[in-house]
Amino acid sequence: MRYEVADHIRFSYWRDEVIVVDTNDGSFRFLNATAAAIWEAIDSLGSSEAATDALCELYGVGVADAKLAVDTCLGQLEELGSLVSEGGPAASGVEDV
Length: 97
Description:
This protein is of the alpha+beta class. It has 4 helices and 5 strands.
């Protein structure tokens, strides 16, 4: 599945983490090394499959374990509004009013 960073999100890589700032409400989050690896794969390659491959390579884990971690992380980031999936509100141009 394809994902992209939401328009109102700013982020910065710091050491092996990512700092994510929501410009709508000023909140911020720190992503740990695993979530940062997933974020970086999404930012550069855009797909959950690429993020799964990145985790397998980085941590030497099996595809099933990596996919579970990626799907869980991406689901949480999408729920928080930090990422949007293909066909989501930002991708379709439809916004809640």
